[in-house]
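User: I'm putting together a teaching handout on how multi-component assemblies are represented. Below are the sequence lines for each component of a complex, exactly as they appear in our records. Could you produce the 3D structure of the whole assembly as structure tokens, so the students can see both representations side by side? Please keep the chain order the same as the input.
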Amino acid sequence: MWEAITANKRRSRVLLALMALLLVALGAAVGGSMTPRPQEGAAIGALVAAVIWLIMLVAAYYRGDLMVLASMGARRIEKQDAPRLWNVVEEMTLAAGLPSVPRVFVIDSDAVNAFAVGRTPEKGSVVVTSGLMRRLGRDELQGVVAHEIGHIVNLDIRFMTTAAVLVGSISLVSEIFLRGMVHGGSRGGRRRSSDGGGGRGQGQAVLLILALVLALLAPIFARLLYFACSRKREYLADASAARLTRYPAGLASALEKIARGGAKLQSKAKNLMVAPMFIVNPLQKMSVTGMFSSHPPTDKRIAVLRSMAGGAGYAEYESAYRGVTGAGKPCLGPRTLASETESVVVREPTPEPKAKQDAIERAREALDLVDGMAGLLFLKCMCGVRIKPPPDLKRKQIPCPRCGRMHDLSLATTLAANRARAAEGKEEPTAPEGEAEQVYRPQSHKGWESLACRCGNKVQLSPALQAEHIRCPRCQRTIKIES
Amino acid sequence: MAPSLIALIVFLVVLVILIMWFVGAYNGLVRLRNRVKEGWAQIDVQLKRRHDLIPNLVETVKGYVGHEKSTLEAVIQARTAAVSASGVGQQAQAESALGGSLGRLMLLVEQYPDLKANQNFLALQEELTSTENKIGFSRQFYNEQVMLYNTRCQSIPSNVIAGMFNFQQAEFFELVDKAQRDAPQVKF
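Assistant: Of course. Below is the structure of the complete assembly, with chains in the same order as your input.
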């Protein structure tokens, strides 16, 4: 974990330096084009830009978290207000080895979202909405809190605050300049013409164009950089959460609920710069892919977490990431991976109250019945999700929406045909006459099994198979599968 | 410059580098050892918390399951043993036994719907679940630190310093129910 932070810090510095350079260049170009003496003007402009940045930075550093919390309408809670949330925060503090328990805040809102602020690990705050508390189970809540604590431990908050201030300063400087151009454009033009042209005037015209281009492009560019960092950090925080909780499925299922339940947050200040601190972007209704998104698409994050196999460590997250995106580019970086000395084993889920599960199970059964009557096909994925593709789907294969595994549709159509036959009262498929049907009882339902048909052919049995019969591909005999 | 002077300078430079490395490695070991201690202190706090919760739990449960005394008594006994245990290994063993008997008590509770609806009990159950989790997570952190520290103690070249200043290997805190680990003995 510690190595991951150091690697993170170094990358952050490069990006921050790049943004600071952009700010100073913008200031210089603006200053140079506004005054009659370009060189002095450029120096003054750069200085002014730097001073604006410093003032904003100091304000953000010492009052930033309070400002964000106040603008979101968050209220601080104590243990007796929400014991479960409080306990989960304490648990994750212990897992991460934070020096002190972060402060806990709640936003009264039906939206399902959470974020963290605080520039040092000692002064972190975790904020969740009341909608999130209501809808998430213990393991899911733990995943979300671990993600936020991951942000605090990885020093993401400090970095994102500094970066946000830089983006804000760049926007501010360019806005001042552009407004000045629009309102005072004609006046400035007269002054310049009365100055009496010459080489200096031409140089200034070039500077003016440069300043205009910079003022238009710099905010966009800075924002792109900012969002790129933010996206990267979301993956790292997800990986940290999986590692801290030892249970990637918790965060995955929480993200599913957040994506379904609406992460969109109504707040007094719809601040673009606060958005990256949330677990799922609070400004967008749906998860959007693209350069202007502060978060990676939620479904991709879920798919990575769901397809983590064999452990909950960084190594597993990395290989799952590569599997999902199909990219050769590393996600966490070699130093983060090297920091992991031992294998990280996934733990068992915490049992939820049984009454709740029963209710979910009943609702699911009823829904299955309706869907079956509507003619939907049924497929069961290894990750536990059930896919219900429509019967007239033209594709041969369908990916699991949760983990991305591909499934053959032919299996589902066979199943549906069997079901339909059974419903019409037609006889079940039987073996050739005069021969008793072969019966096979699977040893377990956990992995692939192979069984021998009477003709000697080996038939592979998928763990996802739900049918009562399978057909030997060589001799067309059917074999009954006992469950 | 005389060759002896150059030799002296080279010798001094090497000496200074050696001393610097020595100080750095020693301090690194001390830092890791302190982190291990800190991790253990956290576990200890959580274990104490568990011990404090149990009398409350037993009091609440007693009114409902009065006739199944043996399970309750096993919990109380295991707690007494855990409170008096000392040292990482012994503590781990006693805590495993306590965890096992608590699990059996919770299974028993499943049969009493009135008890499960009791507000006092629900609050206690949340506390107990959380304490169990906290023990788990602080153990996770502690063992990670122990792993780092032990690796440093054993690997060249810092093992030299570890040997010189008597940095002892730390012990992992493994909670395994002894009854689960030992193979059942078959007697004829």
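A couple of points students might notice: The interface with chain B takes residues 83-84, 87-88, 90-92, 94-97, 138, 142, 244, 246, 341-342, 347, 350 of chain A (CB under 8 Å). The first strand of chain A starts at residue 74 and ends at 76.
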